[in-house]
Amino acid sequence: MKLVPMNVEGHNGSLRRQKREWILAPRNLDEGHDYTTYDFIAKIRSDKETQDKIIYSLTGPGVDQDPKGRFAVDRDTGKVKVYSILDREEIAAYHLHGVAKFPDGTRAEKDIELVIRVIDINDCTPVIKAQQVGQVSEHSKLGTVVMKVIATDDDDNTTANAQISYRIDESSNSGGMFSINSQTGEVMVVKTTLDREVSHYTYKLIVLASDLGGQAGGNTGTGEIEIKLTDINDNIPTLAKETYEGSVEENTVGVEVLRIQAVDLDMINTENWFAVYEIVSGNEGGYFNITNDKKTKEGVITITKVCLNER
C-alpha cells in the first residue's frame, strides 16, 4: 500500500521504499490553518487496486479515537481529509494507520502508518507563575541574586515561539533597586542602599515576559513578584526618654524602683530588636540591679541593698 505524496501549503511529501510498502515521511500541517477547505492532504493507494476493489479506512487518535472526527479517508479514493482546525498545544502529532481491505473484509495488505505533525505558530502568551516571593538582606552587595522568576509558554519549546525574555516594569521598581537577567529571569540587587527601616519592608515588582526572545512581534505576559527585605542588626538602641526618675522608701530591699524602655528600629521581636540592659555608672555602691522583663521588654531597676536616706 502506498501513501501518495501531496503538496500542502509548501510542505512537500516524500516517499521511501521499505520492502513492499511505501511510507510517507511525516506530514506537516500548520496549526490554526484552515485545511478543511482542501480536497485532501494525502492519499492512500494500494497496489492491490489492480486486482480487486479496495476499501480504505483510517484508525487512530483524531479519527476513531479521541479526539474523534478530525481526519477521515474517502473509502473509495483513499483521499485523506482534515475536518477541523488543529491546535499543536492540544496534540503535537497524530499517529494514524491506513487500512486497505477487500470487499469481503479481509486485509488487502499490511496497514500503513501516517504521522501528521502540527507545526507551531506563536499563538501562546508567556505566563508568569503566580505568588513568586523572594527575600534578601537589607544592605546586600551589588549583584546579590534575590530570586529567579519562572515563566512558561505553551508554544514549541524548541522554537523562538517559547524563548522568553524578561524585563522589569521600571514604574514598579522604586529607587531602581533591582534588575533582572533577560535570559535567566534572575533578579539581582543593583544598589547597596536597601534599608528596611528607611524605605520598604517589601518591594512588589511587575515583571514582563516576552516570547521570540523579546524581539518585535512577540507576545508579552505580565506578573507581580514580591521581594521581602530581611533585617540585619544595623540600628543602635536608644532610650525612649532622656531622663528617668524613681523613688523608694528607705530600709527596703528587692523593691522595683523604676522601668526604662529602649527603642530599636530593627525588626520587632527579633534578636536584633531585643535590648539587654545594664548599669554602667552611678551604682558604685551596688545598691541597684537591672533585669529584663521578658514580656514588656523593659529594663527593671530594683534596689538590692538598704539605702539610708541621710539628712
UniProtKB/TrEMBL annotation:
Compartment annotation: Cell junction, Desmosome; Cell membrane
Signal sequence annotation: none
UniProt cross-references to Gene3D superfamilies, sorted A to Z: Cadherins
One GO MF term attached to the UniProt entry: cadherin binding
Keywords carried by this UniProt record: Calcium, Cell adhesion, Cell junction, Cell membrane, Glycoprotein, Membrane, Metal-binding, Repeat, Transmembrane, Transmembrane helix
Domain Cadherin, residue spans: 47-128, 128-239, 240-305
Single GO biological process annotation from the record: cell migration
PANTHER family per the UniProt record, alphabetical: CADHERIN-1 (PTHR24027:SF319), CADHERIN-23 (PTHR24027)
Record's protein name: Cadherin domain-containing protein
Organism: Fundulus heteroclitus
